[in-house]
Each structure stands twice: as C-alpha cells, then as structure tokens.
Fold this protein.
Amino acid sequence: MATTITQITIGTIETKCRDYASRRAQLADRNAEFKDALQAVYRTYLPRLKAASASCAGLEAEIRADIEASPELFQKPRTLVLNGVKCGFAKGKGSLSWDCEDEDLVKRIRKQCAQDLQELLINTTYKPSKKALESLPADALKRLGISVSDAGDKVVVQIPETNVEKFVSKLMDELVKNIEDAG
C-alpha cells in the first residue's frame, strides 16, 4: 500500500482560514440569537418572578411576626415543619466584636493561649479568626475583651432545599449572570 503525501500550501491554509472565519461568524450570530432569546425570556418572566418573590416575602414577614408574637407555641419543640416549611425559633450564631484593634487582640491571644490554639485563633494575616473565636467559651472571650451580641433566639422560616432546587437555583443564577453580561 502506497502512502500519499499531500503538499500543504498557503492556498490550502488560506481556504481553511476562510472557512474557519465563516464558521466563527456563524457561531457569533447564533450566540447573538441565543442572547436575544434569553433577553426575551427574561423580559417575559421577570415581572412575574418579581411579583411572586414579593408575595412570598410578604407572607414570610407575616409568619415571622406571628411567630414572634406567639413564642409560647414553640417551647418544645422549638421548631416545627408545617407543610414543608420549617418555622419557630433557633439559637442564633451571634456575632463577635472586640474592644481593641485586631493587632492588640492578637497580642492578647498570644499571651493567654497555647501555641497550637494560637495557630487556630489567629489567621496568617495576623487578624483574629472569628470562626475559631466563636468556638471559645464565653469566659475566655470575656478575658480577651470580646463581647458576643445577637446570640439570642431568632425566628426561622425556611424550606429545606432539595438537590433539584439547588440545581435550578444555580441554573437561574447563571442565566441571570449571562443576561446581565449580555445587557
């Protein structure tokens, strides 16, 4: 069997470049059509999505107010799942604040805590690690001059997100980002 060697010329490459440029233009046209179609869908559904979102937010605010006005209904258990909606009271995570500059708190941590704990409580940027500090007991936080606020009960109203809802939410986020980028 004889092998044929084809000679490549500038003309061959030029022809392929012309075809490639044509296909790229076609791809750009299809991309523009796609973005236009997305914009049309976005314009069609956005008002309804906003209205539905506002309606949900209003009803959620009513539920929150009802729960806040009736804490005795949520003693034990503190949360209930009613029609797929988890509601009631849950312990707030709280937020940390301290009475000094970050560098001063780092000095306090270095002075009062063991080396292995210091590595956990201090970020490498030499700022206090809020996440790690949140795990300390209240008396240790107090010694460091850190106060805890908003750690009391907070109202919870949420629907546990399923894998399908997570997928749709991610898809919608990407869609909105693409539309915003195109706009």
About this structure: Residues 10-73+156-182 form one domain. The chain has a mean pLDDT of 86. The longest strand covers residues 85-91. The radius of gyration is 30 Å.
